[in-house]
Structure formats: structure tokens, C-alpha cells
Specification:
By secondary structure, the chain is of the alpha/beta class. It has helices at about 40-60, 80-90, 100-110, 150-165, 170-180, 185-190, 195-200, 200-210, 215-230, 250, 255-260, 270-280; strands spanning about 10-15, 20-25, 25-35, 70-75, 95-100, 115-120, 120-130, 130-135, 240-245, 265.
């Protein structure tokens, strides 16, 4: 149906921002637009995609309706939602799937290995000889072990323990008090803060970790949580491990010692993964292998 050199579009749509890229004749055109989470707000997400495609068309100087497009989008929790999104987009040939596929393809390329992703949320993926298994990625209410949200919440809990004299004052609790306030302010913040606002506190933890055992312990616990999940879904003893997301670089050195030598850098980005999956799709290769 398409030649191996056919143009493709890749879309990495996340809850914070959405990236689009057109790859044609060896040239790549990219742009970034607003957030796209189809579970949180389907219509808004579709509108963001329409707007992004329109901008990409303008930059490319051509219509993109017939260009094969792979969309890895946050909030695609069912096949039905994916098909609904495909029908809502102004594209003739489009595949919509959850965004974890793009993240794994971008991090590992076509090879085997494990992805431990720790951003605002978290997920774990293990790919072994064409079989891809996932765990997590379902949001703060259902888990997100080892995520920035969990790290931020742990920082708040530690600070409350300091207020109650159950833990020693340190760099982290002082940073939380300077950012938020006294005991009542922390309680008020925790009651009304968004997932993103709590996750933003993870930066205070990473900044304090070198001088505060409590902060370092929170990060160690997050790394171990993600690694344990990976073992539960089939991580082999020699598989490479790639840590992604904003917290990834801070967790690599805090994995169990037996795993640290297996850590590798990501091959590329989730947007690279979306383009790769688009190319594999049009060539007839299964996109989630």
C-alpha cells in the first residue's frame, strides 16, 4: 500500500504537551502544542490534535490528510476510545494507541529491555523477544508507584512527621515549609493540590537528596518500587534497563546494586518512537511488538 520511503506523521500526545512530527524525504518537521489526554477531556484533546495538524500542514506547505499517522496519546484506556479518536481526526490513515508504546519504542528502539518511566505518573514495560508487557500508568488514584506524584506525596508525609516530632528536621522538610508554610498550610495544600502540583514537589526531594537521608530514602524507595514491578512482569536478570521521565536520571543510581550496571541511555524520545511505529505500521510490522 505504501513504499518504505512514504511520508509519515508521528504524534506523542501527553497530559502536559503534545508533539507532532512529519518525516518526509529524509526531512523532519516538528512542533509542539498543548496537552492531550483523551480520558480527562476527549473533546479538548481532539481539538488540540486538529490544531496541531493544521499548524504542521502550514509548516510543511502541503495537505496532510492522506499521510499515514501514528498517534500515541495519553488517556487511551480502551480500544473503543482509540477507534473513537481515529474517527474524530481529519486523517484518512490513522492509528491511535496509548502513549506508552511510543515511550518504549523511543527508549529501546526495536530491541529487548525494560523501561522504568517516572514522570508525573509512572509505568513499567518489559519487552522480550517480541512480547511487550506493561504495568502501571493508570494515574495517581490507582497507583503510579515510583512517580513524581508519589515522591511529592512522600515529601509531604515526611514533613507532617517532622511537625509531629516523629522524624528529624532536615533539608527536605525545611524546603517544604519554605514552599508551602506551616502544618495547617501543608494540610490545606494536600487537600486541594492537583496531581501536577504534588508531583512538582519531587524537585525539592532531588535537590535535598545529597544532604538529607530522608529525601535520599524517598528516591531509593521509588527506584526499588519500579524495579520490583519490573521483576513481577518478567524482567530477566540480564535485560538492559532504561529509566525515562523527569525523575529517571535521579533513580538510576538508586536501583538495587545488582541492577545498576544494566542501565542504558534512551535510544531516542517518545516522538522518535511515534515516527518509528508509524513506519513499522505502514510496512506491516506489528506496532506493539
Amino acid at each position: 500500500m505504501w513504499s518504505e520511503h512514504a511520508p509519515v506523521i508521528g504524534i506523542d500526545g501527553g497530559g502536559t504537551r503534545c508533539r507532532l512530527a512529519l518525516l518526509e524525504a529524509g526531512e523532519r518537521i516538528e512542533l509542539e502544542v498543548g496537552p492531550c489526554n483523551l480520558s480527562s477531556d476527549f473533546r479538548r484533546g481532539i481539538n488540540v490534535l486538529w490544531g496541531g495538524l493544521d499548524l504542521l500542514s502550514g509548516k510543511a506547505g502541503r495537505a496532510l490528510t492522506d499521510v499515514p499517522t501514528y498517534c500515541g496519546l495519553a488517556g487511551v484506556v480502551s480500544d473503543a476510545l482509540a477507534r473513537e479518536a481515529e474517527a474524530a481526526l481529519p486523517l484518512t490513515h490513522v492509528k491511535v494507541a496509548e502513549d506508552r508504546f511510543c515511550a518504549v519504542e523511543g527508549a529501546l528502539g526495536p530491541g529487548n529491555g525494560c523501561v522504568l518511566h517516572s514522570g508525573t505518573g509512572s509505568f513499567v514495560a518489559v519487552r522480550d523477544n517480541g512480547t511487550l508487557r506493561f504495568a502501571g500508568g493508570w494515574g495517581a488514584r490507582l497507583g503510579d508507584d515510583g512517580s513524581a506524584f508519589e515522591v511529592g506525596r512522600a515529601a509531604l508525609r515526611h514533613t507532617m512527621a517532622v511537625f509531629e516530632c516523629r522524624a528529624a528536621e532536615g533539608w527536605l522538610s525545611r524546603a517544604i515549609r519554605e514552599r508551602i508554610g506551616d502544618r495547617a498550610a501543608v494540610i490545606h495544600f494536600a487537600a486541594g493540590a492537583s496531581t501536577e502540583e504534588v508531583a512538582a514537589l519531587a524537585r525539592l526531594v532531588t535537590e535535598a537528596a545529597a544532604n538529607d537521608p530522608a529525601a535520599d530514602g524517598i528516591l531509593i524507595n521509588s527506584a526499588e518500587q519500579l524495579y520490583d514491578v519490573a521483576k513481577e512482569i518478567g524482567l530477566s536478570q540480564d535485560a538492559p534497563i532504561c529509566l525515562t521521565g523527569g525523575l529517571g536520571p535521579y533513580l538510576a543510581s538508586r536501583l538495587p546494586e545488582r541492577a545498576r550496571h544494566r542501565v542504558i541511555e534512551p535510544v531516542g524520545t517518545p516522538l522518535d518512537g511515534a515516527l518509528s511505529l508509524a513506519q513499522r505500521w505502514i510496512s506491516g510490522v506489528t506496532w506493539n511488538a
